[in-house]
């Protein structure tokens, strides 16, 4: 009888620990998995000037409120970290507090962020298209086109 009680107690504790572990893991899952992830920036369009330029290996990573914007094409733009938040339904994406990767004390140079199509160090993009494979962001006259990878 004592062995049966121990087995039952042991199973109950194991189930409880498993349940707590699963709940803790799901809290960190992205609310909008179509938005969070890794994106390759393909093109930047400016409606005011009519300019459209292709991007040479520019990448964005969005995960758990921290974003990394990175130049892997040796364009000289650098790599930056920032915070981000999106509204309910992921119809807007706010990116702010840009810092240089490797020296987070130093605030990012806005002229280098412009090379990624980011017009300011605190910008809110309208999410024009988001389907898990493609994303289109717009802030003012600037439209950014991405594909997931």
Number of strands: 9
Report the span from N to C terminus.
57 Å
Per the CATH scheme, the topology name of the largest domain is: Lipocalin
Q: State Rg.
A: 21 Å
- Sketch the major β-sheet: 8 strands, antiparallel, barrel
The topology string of helices and strands comes to HEEEEEEHEEE
| Mean pLDDT across all amino acids | 85
The level-1 CATH class of the largest domain:
Mainly Beta
Widest sheet: strand order?
1-2-3-4-5-7-8-9
Helix content: 10-25%
Which second-level CATH architecture of the largest domain applies? Beta Barrel
Domains (count): 2
Spans of at least 5 consecutive residues whose pLDDT stays below 50 are none
How many H/I helices? 2
Structural shape: elongated
Briefly note the structural class of the backbone: alpha+beta
Question: How would you sum up this structure in a few lines?
Answer:
The chain has 149 residues and is of the alpha+beta class. The chain contains two helices and nine strands; from the N terminus they run H-E-E-E-E-E-E-H-E-E-E. The longest helix is centred in the first third of the chain and has 25 residues, at 2-26.
Provide keyphrases for this structure.
149 residues, alpha+beta, Lipocalin, 2 domains, 8-stranded antiparallel barrel, 2 helices, 49% strand
Describe this structure in words.
The structure is a single chain. This protein is of the alpha+beta class and 149 residues long. It folds into 2 domains: 30 residues; 112 residues, Lipocalin (Beta Barrel). Helices cover 20% and strands 49% of the residues. It contains 2 helices and 9 strands. An 8-stranded antiparallel beta barrel has the order 1-2-3-4-5-7-8-9. Strand 3 and strand 4 form a beta hairpin. The longest helix has 25 residues. The chain is elongated, with a radius of gyration of 21 Å. 20% of the residues are buried. The model has no long low-confidence stretch (mean pLDDT 85).
């Amino acid at each position: 009888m004592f062995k049966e009680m121990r087995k039952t107690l042991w199973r109950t504790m194991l189930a409880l620990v498993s349940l707590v572990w699963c709940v803790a893991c799901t809290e960190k899952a992205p609310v909008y998995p179509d938005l969070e992830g890794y994106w390759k920036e393909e093109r930047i369009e400016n409606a005011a000037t009519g300019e459209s330029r292709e991007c040479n290996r520019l990448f964005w990573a969005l995960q758990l409120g921290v974003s990394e914007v990175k130049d892997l094409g040796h364009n000289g733009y650098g790599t930056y970290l920032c915070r981000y938040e999106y509204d309910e339904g992921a119809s807007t994406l706010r990116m702010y507090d840009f810092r240089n990767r490797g020296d987070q004390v130093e605030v990012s140079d806005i002229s280098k962020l412009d090379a990624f199509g980011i017009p300011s160090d605190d910008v809110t993009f309208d999410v024009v298209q988001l389907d898990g494979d493609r994303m289109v962001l717009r802030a003012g006259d600037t439209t950014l086109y991405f594909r997931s990878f």
